[in-house]
Write a structure and sequence with these properties.
Distance between the termini: 29 Å
Helix content: over 70%
Order of helices and strands: HHHHHHHHHHHHHHHH
Radius of gyration: 20 Å
Number of domains: 2
Structural class: mainly alpha
Largest sheet: none
Strand content: under 5%
Length: 352
């Protein structure tokens, strides 16, 4: 019973992207919830505008809604089916990939995605206000976590599982760098004592956005500062959403594909991970901040896009790495319509 059928390239790609979209869905719900919770009186527009910038949606948002504002941003990310980075856009894309995967995924996974999809389509305008919005975000997060639990308990541990996990991990690492990049410049301590409480509150908001507040307080000094949070989110070896742990786990999955399944084509991706790891470990958080955190994170995001392209170029059909890298840098969204889903009948190609 150990003999396994080769995985079709179109299944590998759909698993990779289904995982990315579901991870993106949870991250967006977390960001919306935290943005509302920690928005400062009089600075609401700035707080919600940061959400647009995290996803690099400035141009598309301006065309659709004009000037940013809390109500427009909420509609854009919670109700707008024309926004590929919205809650509805992500669940639609995840379900589209799941439909392709019906021969592979469990009945429980498929049923839950359909129920979850229907639930999100029925979100009403009045749910975007106050406590109702917080309850909605909690419902979305719990829906994704239910999907994750069902997947953990039912998805067959063959090649497909490795591609699913890599998609989830790369998306998670990318979202962590983007949140830190957009928020950090507003939170650098200026030394005035009266600003310390506000800064620590905002850092707490960032940690809660990545579900890391309690984990961080277990290891952080009482009087923690920017360097501690930056180091934790980038290079903590135990926090599930740190960039270092995500890329290390991605490396493990790639290695398993090579050693257990004989798939070539992992060399470029593994080399890219080595570069990312070296960048994360060769400098302290203090040095990274002093030399320019934005430039460091911008380079890290480009490395993650290249990593995804190396995986796609090696194992997925018709993957155009350069086009997707450029699109991801601009919009952080996949375009499977323009790239086309891979055709049937081809296995995961062991590229040279």
């Amino acid at each position: 019973m150990n003999q396994q059928t080769p995985l079709l390239a179109r299944y590998a790609e759909s698993l990779f992207w289904m995982a990315r979209y579901m991870e993106r869905l949870e991250n967006l719900a977390r960001l919306i919830d935290v943005t509302q919770t920690f928005e400062s009186p009089g600075l609401e527009n700035e707080a919600w505008d940061a959400l647009v910038r995290i996803h690099a949606d400035e141009t598309h948002f301006a065309e659709a809604y004009g000037a940013p504002g809390p109500e427009n941003v909420k509609r854009y990310y919670l109700l707008d089916r024309g926004n590929p980075n919205s809650i509805l856009g992500s669940i639609e894309a995840a379900r589209m990939n799941a439909r392709t995967l019906r021969p592979l995924i469990s009945t429980e996974m498929w049923k839950h995605l359909n129920v979850f999809h229907k639930d999100l389509l029925e979100v009403q305008e009045q749910e975007l206000q106050g406590d109702s919005l917080s309850r909605l975000c909690t419902r979305i997060k719990e829906g994704v976590q239910t999907h994750t639990g069902i997947t953990e308990g039912t998805l067959f541990r063959d090649q497909g599982w490795h591609f699913y996990e890599m998609g989830r991990l790369i998306e998670r690492a990318d979202q962590t760098t983007r949140l830190l990049d957009i928020k950090f410049h507003r939170l650098v301590p200026y030394g005035q004592e009266e600003q310390r409480l506000e800064e620590r509150t905002q850092w707490g908001g960032i940690l809660r956005a990545v579900a890391g507040y309690h984990a961080f307080r277990r290891i952080a000094p009482v009087d923690f500062g920017a360097r501690d949070v930056v180091g934790f989110l980038l290079a903590d070896p135990c926090f599930p959403r740190s960039v270092l742990l995500c890329v290390s786990q991605t490396e493990w999955h790639l290695t398993q594909l090579r050693t257990s399944y004989g798939l070539r084509g992992t060399r470029k991706a593994l080399e890219q991970i080595e570069d990312v790891r070296a960048a994360l470990l060769e400098r302290s958080a203090v040095r990274i901040i002093e030399e320019g955190l934005h430039d460091f994170l911008d380079g890290m995001q480009r490395d993650l896009i290249t990593l995804a392209a190396n995986i796609g170029g090696a194992f997925f059909r018709d993957w155009p790495p350069q086009a997707l890298q450029e699109a991801a840098l601009q919009t952080q969204s996949q375009s499977q319509i323009s790239a086309a889903l891979p055709g049937t009948g081809a296995g995961v190609a062991p590229a040279p």
